[in-house]
Design the sequence.
């Protein structure tokens, strides 16, 4: 969102999703990724999927804790 210089309100409108759901994605509070939501976000932000998500291996996750 910072790269696109877009507010949460505007992005939620463009991606046709609720702000509360979008905020969960922004705060990494999503339990399961929804491909349809990710697709709408990519379309709204005009970006590729790899720009939205990053794979962190379980080993790296343990190191962060």
Sequence:
């Amino acid at each position: 969102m910072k790269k696109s210089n877009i507010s949460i309100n505007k992005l939620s409108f463009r991606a046709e999703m609720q702000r509360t759901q979008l905020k969960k994605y922004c705060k990494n509070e999503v339990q399961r990724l929804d491909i349809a939501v990710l697709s709408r976000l990519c379309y709204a932000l005009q970006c590729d999927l790899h720009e939205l998500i990053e794979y962190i291996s379980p080993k790296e996750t343990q190191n962060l804790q």
User: Anything to note?
Assistant: The chain has a mean pLDDT of 88.
